[in-house]
Design goal:
The protein is built from eleven helices and 13 strands. Strands 1, 2, 3, 4, 6, 9, 12 and 13 form an eight-stranded mixed beta sheet that branches. It has a single domain, classed as Jelly Rolls. The structure holds 2-oxoglutaric acid. The site of 2-oxoglutaric acid (AKG) has 9 residues, from strand 5 and strand 10.
Length: 311
C-alpha cells in the first residue's frame, strides 16, 4: 500500500524508494547509453514517439507500484498523457510546470490534481546533480480570495522566497520514483562545479535548460518523465499542449508537444500498451484521428529533417 499520500498533500511531492532494483537501473542505463548516442545540446531527450517505440521504457508507466500510487493520489480512473521523455544531461532553472497554463482559476481548486512522474537512474549528488531541487509546500496557494490574479501574485512571492531559502535537493537515489504536483517549484540539482562560479559566491542558476556535455559518462543524468491527472483536468492541459505545439520550432531537432499530440489512442499505440492501460482502467489522453493529422505531418517533417541532417 502506498503510504505517501499525506506527504504528497503537504509537501507537493512524494518518493517511492527502490522503484527499480540496482540490476534494473544498470540495464536501463545501458539501454539509454545505446539509444541516446545521437543526443546533444540540439536534442536533449528521447521524444514521446521514440519512447513509445520502446516497450522496456514505456512499460515503466504501468508498473503496479506506480499505478497504485497514482490511483490514490489522482483517483482510480486517472488519466495519463503519453508525453513521455527520457532526458539526458538536461539542467534548468527554477520553474513551475503549471505556470505555462497562465493564471487559471482551476489551478486554485482544492480538488486540482495534476502530477509529473519521474524515474531517476542515478543518485542525486552534490557533485553531479542527477535529480531535482524542490520547494516543499510550494505548490500551495497561501491565500485564496475572490481575486484569482492576486492569489497567483501571492503564490509567486511565496515561491520566490521558497526558492531562495527553502529549496533543497530531493534525496533521490538511482531507481527511485518521484511524483510531484505540477504547481511545485523545482529545478535541476546542478553539479557543484557549475554552482560555484556565481557572483558573490551565490550559486548561478542557468535560466534555460542546458545540455551539460561535460558530465562524465558513468554519471550521465537520465530521467524518464510523463504527466498524469484526475480526469476532470485533462481538457485544460490538452488545450495548453495544443497552444504550446504552435510555438515549437519545426526546423529544430527536438519535438515534444507536436510529437505526442500526433499519437491517437488506441490505434497508434503498441498492442500491449493498450492492453495494459485498459486492464488497469487508465485513460490515455489523445486527440481524434482527424485532429491529430496535422501533428503527425509535423512529426514526419521533423523526423525526415533529422534523417537528412544525420546522413
Ligand atoms: O530533471 C530535471 O532536471 C527537471 C526537468 C524539469 O523540470 C522539466 O522537464 O520540467
Amino acid at each position: 500500500m502506498f503510504k505517501g499520500i499525506n506527504r504528497f498533500s503537504w509537501t507537493g511531492f512524494t518518493i517511492l524508494r527502490s522503484f527499480l532494483s540496482p540490476v534494473e537501473v544498470k540495464e536501463y542505463r545501458q539501454l539509454f547509453d545505446e539509444m541516446t548516442k545521437h543526443l546533444s545540446s540540439k536534442k536533449r531527450m528521447l521524444d514521446p514517439s521514440e519512447v513509445l517505440a520502446c516497450q522496456k521504457i514505456y512499460s515503466l508507466s504501468f508498473r503496479p507500484a506506480l499505478v497504485q500510487a497514482l490511483k490514490q493520489i489522482l483517483g482510480t480512473n486517472y488519466a495519463m498523457f503519453s508525453d513521455f521523455q527520457v532526458q539526458k544531461n538536461k539542467y534548468g532553472g527554477w520553474h513551475v510546470d503549471s505556470n505555462s497554463e497562465g493564471n487559471q482559476a482551476y489551478l486554485q481548486n482544492s480538488k486540482y490534481r495534476f502530477i509529473k512522474v519521474g524515474v531517476y537512474f542515478q543518485d542525486n549528488t552534490d557533485e553531479y546533480g542527477g535529480g531535482i531541487d524542490v520547494v516543499p509546500g510550494g505548490h500551495k496557494f497561501p491565500l485564496i480570495t475572490q481575486d484569482v490574479k492576486r492569489n497567483f501574485k501571492i503564490k509567486q512571492r511565496y515561491n520566490e522566497y521558497g526558492q531562495k531559502w527553502i529549496g533543497k535537493p530531493a534525496k533521490l537515489h538511482a531507481g527511485d520514483l518521484l511524483i510531484f504536483d505540477s504547481r511545485l517549484p523545482h529545478k535541476a540539482t546542478w553539479p557543484r562545479l557549475m554552482r560555484s562560479n556565481g557572483k558573490d559566491g551565490q550559486p548561478q542558476w542557468a535560466p534555460e535548460n542546458v545540455y551539460l556535455s561535460q558530465i562524465p559518462s558513468e554519471h550521465t543524468k537520465y530521467v524518464f518523465y510523463f504527466d498524469a491527472c484526475h480526469p476532470d483536468f485533462v481538457e485544460t492541459f490538452l488545450q495548453n499542449s495544443i497552444q504550446r505545439s504552435e510555438q515549437e520550432n519545426l526546423n529544430g531537432q527536438e519535438l515534444f508537444f507536436n510529437d505526442y499530440l500526433g499519437s491517437v489512442f488506441p490505434e497508434d499505440y503498441p498492442e500491449d500498451f493498450v492492453k495494459q492501460a485498459q486492464e488497469q482502467g487508465i485513460q490515455v489522453v489523445s486527440l481524434s484521428q482527424a485532429k491529430a493529422q496535422k501533428y503527425k505531418e509535423r512529426r514526419r517533417f521533423v523526423h525526415d529533417n533529422r534523417t537528412k541532417q544525420a546522413s
